[in-house]
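Quick log. Single chain, no ligands specified.
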Amino acid sequence: MTSVQDNIKGKVAIVTGASSGIGESTARHLAARGAKVVLAARRTDRLDKVVAEIREAGGEAIAVATDVSKRADLEKLAAATVEAFGRIDVLVNNAGVMPLSPIEKLKVDEWDRTIDVNIKGVLYGIAAVLPRMQAQGSGHILNVASIAGIKVFTPIGTVYSATKHAVRAISEGLRVEMGNSGVRVTVVSPGAVESELKFGSTDAEAAAGVKAFYDANQIPSDAIARAVVYAVEQPANVDINEVVVRPVSQDF
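-> predicted structure:
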């Protein structure tokens, strides 16, 4: 009988936003289960450190400098992955930003950045890997959304919520489109998780509120990494469509 362990071992997995938080933890967990991991982010010093530690632990990993808001970077990331490991089995679209403020404060530049990273970055990642997955008849795209993609995070997170609602819509639409192609799609929606995401707000009042909420409720990023591993390890004909992970104490 084949163990679920074997459904991760040897797979080639790209993780965006892998320099810290959920992305870093996910890369480490996948590597520990035998995946060949490609860590993507802008901070190459952090990536190199994590890659070195994965290798020291006996895993296989490389780092690729990537800004997910630039489509060319995602194309280069996919090409570098194929060059290094020959294929792409898993994409964890994790990179995201969370600058929070009421709409009336009109932080339009932050809206643009949030859309560029949280929506366009996900779409660019899909565009880079999907043709390769379709050609090989298998693959798994996991998009990290948020509790804010289930319930609108008012009054400070409306734009952020809009981007995460979009991620869930993109994920469900792609899942249906893929049908019997062999390409699986999962959306993972975290609640308050220990990461750098909570530090993204330039609005002082919003930042203070977020910090207090996270300090009181947050769970480790490992909680999300385990959810990703759970989805990836399933047999090829099983697709975990959606996983929602909250702190027990979180009320929304």
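The chain has one domain: 4-244.
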